[in-house]
Specification:
Strand order of the largest sheet: 4-3-2-1-5-6-7
Order of helices and strands: EHEHEHEHEHEHHEH
Strand content: 15-25%
Number of strands: 7
Helix content: 40-55%
Mean pLDDT: 97
Length: 181
């Protein structure tokens, strides 16, 4: 079907529930016939995502900068692992290789990736669907703040509408699949 890029945390110190969410996301993507595109790491939610996809029989594509390969955090079990020269080229390649984007809970790196694809979409550099999974209200304060930007004319409402916000992975995949067909 489609190559779905998932942005999520790579921290090694997360609560089990976040790792389980990532693993289930990978498994559900695989069950639905999608390829999982990730940041190419084997740790945290990123590693759980890829492991979940492979355990359910789905293919994985990782994109990782050489500096992280050197730190021994690369997902060497990935069906395809592309190594870039830096973080910026990593994001560019992830955008090129993906048909859609799904964002799970994460920190600065996750937000950086989300905002990169969202900004390029607002500039009409791509029309690929983007969904934010607000599991347990993780992103609620951020989403409220973003809406306030639109209310104050710092963000056009049409730009805000490019990002679909849902509270579960099945809803996220339903939203992406409806936009991909």
């Amino acid at each position: 079907m489609a190559a779905i890029c998932v942005f999520c945390a790579s921290s090694r110190t997360l609560d089990r529930r976040w790792l389980d969410l990532a693993a289930e996301t990978g498994a559900e993507l695989a069950r639905r016939g999608h390829t999982v595109v990730s940041g190419g790491g084997c740790v945290g939610m990123m590693g759980a995502l890829a492991d979940g996809a492979r355990a359910a029989g789905g293919p994985t594509l990782g994109v990782i900068p050489q500096a992280l390969v050197d730190l021994e955090v690369a997902d060497l079990a990935s069906d395809e692992l592309l190594v870039t020269d830096g973080m910026a080229s990593r994001k560019t390649l992830m955008i090129e290789k993906s048909d859609a984007f799904l964002t799970l809970p994460g920190g600065l790196g996750t937000l950086d990736e989300l905002f990169e694809v969202w900004t390029t979409a607002t500039l009409a550099m791509h029309t690929k669907p983007m969904v934010l999974v607000d599991s347990d209200g993780f992103y609620r304060p951020l989403v409220d703040w973003l809406r306030s930007l639109a209310d104050r004319n710092f963000l056009k409402p049409a730009g805000l509408d490019l990002l679909t916000v849902v509270d579960s992975v099945p809803a996220a995949l339903d939203a992406l699949e409806s936009r991909l067909t």
